[in-house]
Amino acid sequence: MIRPSERAMGVEYAIRDVVLPARELEKKGIKVISLNIGDPGKYDFQPPEHMIEAYCRALREGHNYYGPSEGLLEMREAVVQREKRKNGVDITPDDVRVTAAVTEALQLIFGGLLDPGDNILVPSPSYPPYTGLVKFYGGIPNEYETIEENGWQPDIEDMRKRINERTKAIAVINPNNPTGALYEKKTLKEILDLAGEYDLPVISDEIYDLMTYEGKHVSPGSLTKDVPVIVMNGLSKVYFATGWRLGYFYYVDPEDKLAEVREAIDRLTRIRICPSTPAQLAAIAGLTGPMDYLEEYMKKLRERRDYIYKRLTEIPGISTQKPQGAFYIFPRIEERSKWKSDKEFVLDVLHQAHVLFVHGSGFGRAGEWHFRIVFLPPVEILEEAMDRFEEFMRKRLS
Ligand code: PLP
């Protein structure tokens, strides 16, 4: 037997890990309703036509070559335009790096920041790559609490307690996956103040920025005066192009504190050559083009969110906060006597009701005894899933 690396064997991704038992059921001819993966492209959402057109044109017109490691200049200019419009940030194309989606941005940023034993403050619960990739790059995910009863807002005092001499950055995911929380401006200012006090950069994941239901998203990049902020975004959610694998990040760093980190990250961008050239040409069309499609899509998403929230509040044994952004809801299992863990609960739901959720502990410590539901499918599918789930819960609790 050839020994694999411990580093890789330590990597887990709960969202896809639960797919294996679901596949076993499907092999037996059982129809499973999968509410585990946040991919709008699997349902009635597609990238807007002008982006698809630009992608096809790029391929046909021969834009099939390697581009610059930092991304095409036109793409970086489009990012500057988009981010000035959305966040009012004062950046230039030189501050922007184009990546193979936010996932690669995370790899590059963690790779450029972390030495073994360093830690990054990440929200708990959080999107799994934050813990998984920090560990892969030798770091320690330092999970800060978020307050469920307060719509899962970050707990600033807990954040403060966790900062130590090996802390390298504070990560913020807003709107949040898996909780759907939208952070208040006041909270973001407090995070920036704390980061400033300890000379830490803030890493801001804004991939769901225009997907909000009640309030509007505020970027820490738009609020900072001196604290360096690295903002990440991409085509996967607001532009509905998950499979294109394209994203970007940029530095808002008024005092140039990240100059050396930028150099480290640039070394990493060069060694991975470049992001997809034709996808960038499609992205330019998306970032600079009309956004009216989003209104229609958000109308559908709001209807689905309202529906699932209402159904969940009527099901016994669980409680749930109403998500303010993204397309996830993260209920809490109140009645715990029937299962040993949230994972056992999710597998029980899968085997009995044939509905696939993701266990909350897959999103970190604070996710324990919760589960995540993706509410992207049309109401008819959500209705069938909720009918099955409700019947399951009533039976289990009777
Ligand atoms: N960041 C968050 C918070 C996400 O929820 C996701 C995907 O679900 C990603 C990043 C991954 O984005 P990308 O497709 O750009 O790699």
From TrEMBL:
Transmembrane segments: none
Domain spans labelled Aminotransferase class I/classII large: 31-388
Presence of the UniProt keyword Transferase in the record: yes
GO molecular function annotations of the record: pyridoxal phosphate binding; transaminase activity
Record flagged with keyword Transferase: yes
Domain of life: Archaea
GO process annotations (BP): amino acid metabolic process
Keywords, comma-separated and alphabetical: Aminotransferase, Pyridoxal phosphate, Transferase
InterPro entries, sorted: Ala_Aminotransferase (IPR051926), Aminotransferase_I/II_large (IPR004839), PyrdxlP-dep_Trfase (IPR015424), PyrdxlP-dep_Trfase_major (IPR015421), PyrdxlP-dep_Trfase_small (IPR015422), TyrNic_aminoTrfase (IPR005958)
Obligatory cofactor(s): pyridoxal 5'-phosphate
Entry-linked PANTHER family: GLUTAMATE-PYRUVATE AMINOTRANSFERASE ALAA
NCBIfam families referenced in this protein's UniProt entry, alphabetically: PRK08363.1
Full protein name: Pyridoxal phosphate-dependent aminotransferase
Source organism: Thermococcus waiotapuensis
